[in-house]
Amino acid sequence: MANGYAFLPFMIMAGLSIFPLTARELSALALPLLVVFAIPVVDHDAFMMPTLDAAAILWLLALVGAVGGLSAISQLQILRSLFATSVIDPLTGALNRGSGNELIALQFALAQRHGYPLTLAFVDLDDFKRVNDTAGHENGDRLLKEAAQAWHATLRKSDALLRWGGEEFVLVLPYTDCQRADHLIRHRLPALPRPDGTPLTFSIGITEWRADGVTHWQALVALADKRMYQAKAQGKNRIVACAPEPSKN
Length: 249
Hints:
Layout: H1 2-6, H2 8-15, H3 23-42, H4 44-47, H5 51-87, H6 97-114, E1 118-125, H7 128-135, H8 137-154, E2 160-165, E3 168-174, H9 178-187, E4 202-208, H10 217-233, E5 238-240
Parallel strand pairs: 4-5
Antiparallel strand pairs: 1-3, 1-4, 2-3
Helix pairs in contact: 2-5, 3-5, 7-8
């Protein structure tokens, strides 16, 4: 039994490899064990333990901790990569459509529950196919990335940017009514050049659940998408927003 307890610190140290941990967490968990076993090395007379044996135990314990720590950090990096690829669009850094659906559903439920405005803006890059056809897909991807970064820079911390598909993005603007969203977007439109030097323009459809009387988040997305196509049909480079709310007497 005594010999079994002697292996307990090594089992604890090796057990750290089971969990995905950061370097800081590993240090906080492993350092106390190392300190306890370092004391006999420093003051071996008080513990009646040969210095060589104490140093060997400490070295072996540190080696087990290092191997277990590398395994724990590797697990954490793998989990982070899996999470990022399942939630984030790798090209633009915006949320992908799957995670975007969940975000919109959650925000819509909260907006209904607490009665605050929630606006969606469907953004389409005008004539993006022509960029791919004339300048190549590499330049097209670069333009998509630059556009996403520019929209990210204009948004507030409470807002979110989703890549809906292709050259289409969705802006999620909680606590923002339609009029305020229209004003924000018009005054913060990114100014980006196409590969041929001409300015990049956007067709945008805006909807807000209270102003439009929408009862489901899917209908909110569909209406914003419809208005974006209306903007394109009207000549592109424009915004089609929701109707203003009726004045209250």
